[in-house]
Amino acid sequence: MTEKELHEARRARWRLDGRPVRTADDAAGFVESVGMCALHPQPELLLPSFVGAWVGGDERLPTAQRAFEDERAHAARELAVELLRRRAAFESNLLGENVLLVAGSVFPFFYALKGDKNPRAELKPGRRERISPLAADVFGAIQKGGPMSKRRLREALGGEPSEAALDRALGELWARLRIMRVDYRAGEGALWDTLLRWAPEAVKEGLQLSVGEALSALISRYLEAVVAAERSEIEKFFSYFAPRSRVRENINALLGARELAFHSVGAKTLLELAPVREAGRRTVAAQKP
Hints:
7 strands; single chain
């Protein structure tokens, strides 16, 4: 494989080759095919973007910081919301200002790495829980009242929290996967629900997976999406998920199990899924590092 062939293979897989994603079914198929993608381009990471797939190309795509002024980003966002409603995809704030979309079939592995290990436990503020009093109150309100917007949350909390404080509290809970954005409504904004209520089976499945199983599965799905990547590129992306030392261990385990193989492209040495893996789905098999 040459550099040009690798580039074209990624463009085809990421739907940047003039085949834009337009319907909800097509969008669900795209997210399922790549496993994980950023909502907006994340230039420093080797990662497909949902906006790019919606556009069908990569010319002048808006980053998360510039999305508010780009009509294409708004249209892509509306389509992504439909995936949330269907539970075909879940959102994460792992990438900061950008949103990481995780396919429904992949989400249990993601939960195993980033989710709360005791999702039924009551949240109590303090050093041990590492949760703020406001976040605990927000969670209690959502747990009691069902899916809620920020406006409804402020009403339920007596109108006290500022917009910034409420955003921080929601971010805390979202990072622990205690809550999830599940819908958007005109004039009301995002609706939040407890993840355990919204997707109990995904949480249950994630709790049954070990960190090693989950990380190995995600690395395999990532390589399926990017075709091939340098070890440093894999480590950089997965440093958002786990310590780099743990990522290296899992890569070595996959190499030892012959799940991955080396591939030379020009002067670069890349990692790819081993050819024997091409015949079937890798998600299940990758659970066995």
